[in-house]
Amino acid sequence: MKIAVxxxxxxxxxxxxxxxxxxxxxxxxxxxTALSMAPASVAPSLENLTRLGIKAVLITDPAYAxxxxxxxxxxxxxxxxxxxxxxxxxxxxxxxGDTSQVPPMLAERLGCGITVGVMEFDGEKITTRSNKSETLxxxxxxxxxxxxxxxxxxxxxxxxxxxxxxxxxxxxxxKKCGIKGSPTRVIRSYESSVGRxxxxxxxxxxxxxLISKSMTKSIDKNSDETVAKTDRIYYVGDxxxxxxxxxxxxxxxxxxxxxxxxxxxELSGLGAKVVLFESNEEYKTLxxxxxxxxxxxxxxxxxxxxxxxxxxxxxxxxxxxxxxADIACDSKMSLATVRKxxxxxxxxxxxxxxxxxxxxEKIRALAKKYHAQLAATRTVxxxxxxxxxxxxxxxxxxxxxxVYVAFGISGAVQHTSAISGAGTxxxxxxxxxxxxxxxxxxxxxxxxxxxxx
Length: 453
Known about the structure:
This protein has helices at residues 16-27, 43-49, 69-83, 102-110, 167-170, 207-215, 240-246, 260-269, 281-294, 360-369, 378-382, 413-416; strands at residues 2-6, 9-10, 13-14, 31-37, 55-59, 87-91, 113-121, 125-128, 133-135, 140-144, 162-165, 184-190, 200-201, 230-236, 247-252, 274-278, 297-299, 304-308, 311-318, 323-329, 334-338, 348-352, 373-376, 403-407, 424-429, 442-445. It has 3 domains: 2-176, HUPs (Rossmann fold, 3-Layer(aba) Sandwich); 193-221 and 342-450, Rossmann fold (3-Layer(aba) Sandwich); 224-338, HUPs (Rossmann fold), CATH 3.40.50. The protein is globular and about 65 Å long. By secondary structure, it is of the alpha/beta class. α7 (240-246) links the parallel β14 (230-236) and β15 (247-252).
């Protein structure tokens, strides 16, 4: 059996989700090839991977640079046709782009099935986040959660040779590659102001009083800023309230029981210019497949939309969550995924960030005492310290409780955007410059162990 594993490097390190996929491929005992589309500078890193007894192929060419997920999936799919593996393994997402679009786009281009979110693997069988169990099936793309650490090579192992495939080797249509082949383009990037608040700093012994006071406040559900609406949005899933916010006419489209080709055909027949998909596993996969079929741009986990003259602008976090990007599509149809509006999820939420991991049990006990729900950031769930169902963020869930207490959370855009509907946000962090304080009503600069409740 031959397995191709998609590998991406970010800041010199292998994407941890891809590393997990590679380790699982090694455990299967199959013939493994690591396939990476990257600058030539990645070659030494791939060469080190060959010490694990695998083959490595680097796809690199100036014509391929700067592509979006559509252009990237086109190049990778053509390379995979050349490799002709039995199975394709990949990480569920990359830690920089964070879109989860390339694997389902590859599945559509290659005519493969896809199974996303593998949580358990025994060499032959997998179990997904949705508790679906199955035996590995040929001509299928599997995406893996961060469930393994990649082994170290033996000290006696030797490096192999990395195959370099440029466009002289692949002979692709360069109009479909890189920037030229990308239907999405970044218009501008800037610091996000979604959910920004005016923070008052307090002492650690005020936390209980702040929670009690904030629990008596009502949440203003009508505080949204005015946006420039587009004429019509078609939406798939439970996101009608979001579609109505950004369009004069919001039309529900029922995709149940339909494959991607049927959905693409019907949406095209309706003359749809903007289609929003609820950001869950099923609809994210569907959106990616439809994007390939229609040749449409697809923007992931958007936090806002607006119409600027003849251009529909989609806004999402970018660059590790430090900034927000405005994106437009040059295609006839603009597609986007968006998280549905969060319910209260309890009147009170205690959220755990990376800085609070050593105090999880203390926070768990406090949550029980105050009848609060627990939540966590993506970093915490990816590390296995909390289950995925607790994740709050654009790749998790959005929430709107009366009070949200953020313990040890730095405040990436992906997280602060998902808590913008909270009535009151209280942040506890040792870093006085943490971004979370710009998105909190109250801030406490203190070690969690010194906070009394």
